[in-house]
Amino acid sequence: MSRPPGRLTIRCLFSAQAAAGEAAPGASAPSSAPAGEKSSRGNLIKKVGEPASQTYNGETVATFVVKSIDAGAACTAQYAQQPKNGQIVVATFDVETTAALAKTITKDFSLNMFGWKAIVGNGTTVNGNIVPFMCLDSAEELPHTMGPGEKATGKLAFDVPAGAGTLVYTAPGAPAGWEWSY
Fold first, then answer.
1. CA atoms of 9 and 24, how far apart (whole Å)
2. Per the record, which residues fall in region Disordered (predicted)?
């Protein structure tokens, strides 16, 4: 299956395509790897510690791992406000970009606030922007953008309703995303 030039795709090391005997775009998952389960929303369901990657024209441009998710966390910025939706959830990430990122249209990678949404336990998507302004001290935050060949560890905070739920990230232009339960 060929893709048009400039097509952005997502993949994980445990893809559903690999389990079905199909090669994931730009990837060759080990045959012993378990299948990547998809949600009813079409996103790859990830667990803390499982890597995910983004490709462009079949080349990996960024890999990221959610190292931890802390529900009921506190904001650490000096002028942080109380959560509007009920609780703060903080996710810690390791991110690494490759030289192939320079071949993309934007030439940068971001897990920016516009790609995130939260879904509460009953399946309702939270309205509005869930990424609070000035919640984390800037020294803790994940960089807003990264260029080719960079590594970073940092956090993102989410203002979500109290209780369990799901964080979903879909990269701009990608056909589906990833999701993590908290």
1. 9
2. 24-43
Q: Which amino acid is at 90?
A: V
- Start-to-end CA distance of the chain, whole Å, equals 36
Structure tokens at 80: 């942080």
- Residue 155's SS3 state is strand
C-alpha distances out from residue 110 to 39, 107, 116, Å: 23, 10, 11
Supply the CATH number for residue 65's domain. 2.60.40.1240
pTM of the model: 0.80
For tokens 């890597």, the residue is 51
Q: Phi and psi for 71 in degrees, rounded to 5?
A: -80, 140
Residue 137 CA to residue 155 CA, distance in Å, equals 10
- How confident is the model over 77-127, as pLDDT tens digits? 999 999 999 999 999 999 999 999 999 999 999 998 889 999 999 999 999
Q: Take residue 92 and report the two structure tokens written for it.
A: 């810690």
> Both tokens of residue 11?
């993949």
114 is a domain residue: yes
Phi/psi of residue 141, each to 5°? Answer: -65, 145
Can you give the residue range of the structural domain that contains 49? 8-181
Is residue 2 domain-resident? Answer: no
| Domain assignment present for 1 | no
Q: What are 140-160's pLDDT values in tens digits?
A: 999 999 999 999 999 999 999
On whether residue 3 sits in a domain, the answer given is no
